[in-house]
């Protein structure tokens, strides 16, 4: 009979199962993201972690401060303002062909 309920009405089966779980246990099964981050911020953090591992393959073998320094430098470099320098307008050097 349970197999029939699972096949015919999975939502009803899950509802019955949820009703059988003690309330205290249900509260301990709630998913929570680390640091109290909301789901969007946690997803962003995971993307950052993946980017660090892709860019710095041995990141797990380094000290956290060393990885943070690498990431901080990369962010500063990416946000740095490029200063373009115009070449000076100089006359070509007059090279004396007869000088030895």
Q: Could you characterize what this model shows?
A:
By secondary structure, this protein is mostly helical. The chain folds into two domains: 1-30, no CATH class; 33-84, no CATH class. The protein has helices at residues 2-8, 10-20, 23-28, 39-55, 64-79. The N and C termini lie far apart (107 Å). The model has no long low-confidence stretch (mean pLDDT 81).
Rg is 31 Å
Characterize the largest beta sheet: strand count, sense, and whether it forms a barrel: none
- The number of distinct structural domains comes to 2
Total beta strands: 0
Helix content: 55-70%
Number of helices: 5
What are the segments in which pLDDT stays under 50 over at least 5 consecutive residues? Answer: none
SSE order: HHHHH
Task: Break the fold down into its secondary structure elements and pairings.
Layout: H1 2-8, H2 10-20, H3 23-28, H4 39-55, H5 64-79
Features:
100 residues; 57% helix; rod-shaped; mainly alpha
Summarize the structure.
The protein has five helices and no strands.
């Amino acid at each position: 009979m349970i197999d029939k309920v699972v096949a015919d009405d999975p939502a009803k089966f899950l509802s019955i199962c949820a009703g059988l779980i003690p309330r205290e246990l249900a509260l301990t099964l709630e998913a929570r993201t680390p640091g109290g981050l909301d789901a969007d911020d946690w997803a962003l953090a995971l993307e950052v972690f993946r980017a660090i591992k892709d860019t710095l393959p041995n990141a797990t073998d380094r000290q956290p401060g060393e990885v943070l320094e690498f990431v901080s430098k990369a962010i500063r470099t990416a946000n740095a303002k490029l200063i373009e320098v115009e070449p000076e307008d100089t006359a070509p050097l007059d090279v004396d062909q007869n000088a030895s």
